[in-house]
TrEMBL record:
It comes from Parathielavia hyrcaniae. 5-aminolevulinate 1 binds at residues 266, 278. CDD domains: eu_ALAD_PBGS_cysteine_rich. This is Delta-aminolevulinic acid dehydratase. Homooctamer. Catalyzes an early step in the biosynthesis of tetrapyrroles. Binds two molecules of 5-aminolevulinate per subunit, each at a distinct site, and catalyzes their condensation to form porphobilinogen. Belongs to the ALAD family. SMART domains: ALAD.
Length: 386
């Protein structure tokens, strides 16, 4: 029974009850007011008794609203709150020095040449940008070959960008994606055998050389995304041999799943395979056990950070990564397809873009990630400031 119904019920009961003796007609209005006050008092007492009975029956824990009735109290409910220091912004660096081209399938994102980098990043750094991850995009004819030899070219876009950013933004943390797919003529993530299958041994040797070249150039972190078996151990050993293992973080794309969500990235990076697909070396979407094994393997081989990619459809894998690597930071990459879908739905009026950007990211944090790779970083720098 609602409180108003309770008052009405008590009033009806009082109306049918005998009037108190000694009350004249002239005092009728006073009596009515007294009766009304009496009803309210009795109703409150009844409601209080009912609330007490709830607590006595052991249901007091059902009263949760007070814990999130205020905006600040709501923020306290999160185990992890999004901060600027958690964010890594992906950058596509072209070997065309003056290029700045919008990527149609990846809203508000561009492929930029090295001459466009500093003017673009300067305002973002002032707003609190702390880290970027670099993807090289060779555009010049004849640059790509079967071995991806341009990946560690000292005059290539990644190594030149590392040196420039270290000089111009000394506090910016530079992560380099390490893979061959952007540089190979076939678009796969390693060196192939004659039958078109991946040669894991040669691929690992090549990938580890590229990682060391980026580290020598000044990268703070190298992040192999190729998914070849054993590449974490190979990179770690070469960093030890170079004497720089103490200053270069190794972030493993340990649980990288194959699927439909990479299309806009491949448009940006020019890395679509010329034949076949990557299902033989990227994890199958249903392969939770494989992902757990890959995470454990890469931790054992010396990874400093574990990454899960994509993020939103693999929150259970993020939680697994946090469980298996409880002493390591866990990164999650909200990939190009996830980003594009959020933009498309917001444009169609399904939801507010900002609200969904936060909601999707907070879900990733809740699952266990402490580092977020996101194309929303420029917007988050503004939103988190306000």
């Amino acid at each position: 029974m609602s409180f108003s119904s309770l008052v009405q019920d008590l009033s009806l009961r009082d109306a049918s009850a005998p009037r108190r003796p000694g009350v004249s007609r002239g005092d009728a209005s006073v009596s009515t007011m007294d009766d009304r006050a009496s009803c309210l008092s009795r109703a409150k007492s009844y409601a209080s008794t009912a609330a007490t009975s709830v607590s006595i029956s052991g249901d007091i824990g059902s009263q949760l609203h007070a814990g999130y009735s205020h905006p600040l109290a709501r923020s306290w409910q999160a185990e992890r709150q999004l901060t600027k220091s958690m964010l890594i912004y992906p950058l596509f660096i072209s070997d065309q020095d003056d290029e700045e081209v919008l990527i149609p399938s990846l809203p508000n994102q561009c492929r930029r040449g090295i001459n466009r980098l500093v003017p673009f990043l300067e305002p973002l750094v002032h707003k609190g940008l702390r880290s970027v991850i670099l993807f090289g995009v060779p555009m010049r004819p004849g640059t790509k070959d079967a071995l991806g030899t341009a990946a560690d070219d000292p005059e290539g876009p990644v190594i030149r960008s590392i040196r420039l950013l270290r000089q111009r933004f000394p506090h910016l943390y530079i992560v380099c994606d390490v893979c061959l797919c952007e540089y190979t003529s076939h678009g796969h993530c390693g060196i192939l055998r004659d039958d078109g299958s991946l040669n894991n041994q040669l691929s690992v040797d090549r990938i580890s050389d590229v990682a060391v070249a980026y580290a020598r150039a000044g990268a703070h972190c190298v992040a192999p995304s190729d998914m070849n078996d054993g590449r974490i151990r190979a990179i770690k050993l070469k960093l030890i041999e170079e004497g720089i293992v103490h200053s270069v973080t190794l972030m493993s794309y340990a649980a990288k799943f194959s699927g439909c969500l990479y299309g806009p990235f491949r448009d940006a990076a020019g890395s679509t395979p010329s034949f076949g697909d990557r299902r033989c070396y990227q994890l199958p979407p249903g392969g939770r056990g494989l992902a757990r094994r890959a995470i454990v393997r890469d931790i054992g081989e010396g990874a400093d950070i574990i990454m899960v990619k994509p993020a939103g459809q693999y929150l259970d894998i993020i939680a697994d990564a946090k469980e298996l690597g409880r002493d390591l930071p866990v990164a999650a990459y909200q990939v190009s397809g996830e980003f594009a879908m959020i933009h498309a739905a917001a444009k169609a009026g399904v939801f507010d873009l900002k609200a969904m950007a936060f909601e999707s990211t907070e879900g990733i944090l809740r699952a266990g990630a402490t580092i977020i790779v996101s194309y929303f970083v420029p917007e988050f720098l503004d939103w988190l400031s306000n």
